[in-house]
Amino acid sequence: MNRQLYKTEQIFSIVIAVLATIASLGGLGLKNLYRDNAFVKAAWFTNDMITLAVAVPLLIIAVIQSKRGSLKWMLIWVGLLGYMFYNLGFYLLGAAFNLFFLIYTFLFSLSGFTMLKLLWNLSNEPLAQQFSERVPVKTISLYLLLMPLMLFIAELSMIIPFITSGKIPETIIATGHPTSVVFALDFSIIIPAFTTAAVLLWQRKAWGYILATMMPVKGFTYGLVLSIGTAFLAYDKAYGKWDPLMPLYAALTLGGLPGCWFLLKTYKSNPESKAI
């Protein structure tokens, strides 16, 4: 692995970690930063907590380990950039205009650019040859297909009633937004990405191994956001009920780590790669 090849991504990722920390601390500490309703504010607070306590530390560890030559951590690294890109999309497109708008814009753009650049460079690494034939590609691929299928069915079940009767989904009413940023990002990014990862991994393509690691990492980190945020809202006096999609959130969280672990544990480290 050419370490110099990834120097730009390393620098950008540290900048992302620093700015994400500032944004999260500001969200948790500045009382009047968020101008959204109570339902949406609860989501921002949960996002801020998980970003600060889980995503940022893991991103820093991934950059450090990747700098030492670990391709395993590099795969985790790109998954964490995927989390940052997806998560910041909500702030940029879904948060009421606030003091951190320019930070959200810069983080969204930088996370997306860094993720794509890292993916491009990773595609030139001999990844497929370094995974054992014992990788349970079919099992992991089925999990990767199950996630977008559940998401597709769950969200389509809220969209179809509007098409047939004009009934606005309750989740959109609760946010007070004119549309659903969640539906938009899931149908345009998450569902295609999970599905592509499953198909390419089943075929044992190099991109399959990359995406099949990236998506469970993203699924685990954002699954934490969704699961904890749902629990907070369920016990909140103003809202007081469980999101019917909680089983899906739990599956994303609990399935992400095993899927990633099963894949990476069969990775055959070369002399330049460190153990995870």
Descriptive report:
The chain has 276 residues and is mostly helical. 74% of the residues lie in helices and 0% in strands. It is built from 9 helices and no strands. α2 packs antiparallel against α8 (206-234).
What does the secondary structure layout of this molecule look like, with pairings?
Blueprint: H1 7-29, H2 38-67, H3 71-94, H4 101-122, H5 137-165, H6 170-175, H7 181-202, H8 206-234, H9 246-264
Helix pairs in contact: 1-2, 1-4, 2-3, 2-8, 3-4, 3-8, 5-7, 5-9, 7-8, 8-9
- Strand proportion: under 5%
Alpha carbon gyration radius: 19 Å
Q: In one word, what is the shape? A: globular
- Tally of DSSP helical segments: 9
Average residue pLDDT: 85
The largest pleated sheet is described as: none
Estimate percent helicity.
Answer: over 70%
Cα separation of the termini: 16 Å
Number of domains: 1
The number of distinct β-strands equals 0
Order of helices and strands: HHHHHHHHH
Question: Structural class of the secondary structure composition?
Answer: mainly alpha
User: What low-confidence regions span 5 or more consecutive residues with pLDDT below 50?
Assistant: 271-276
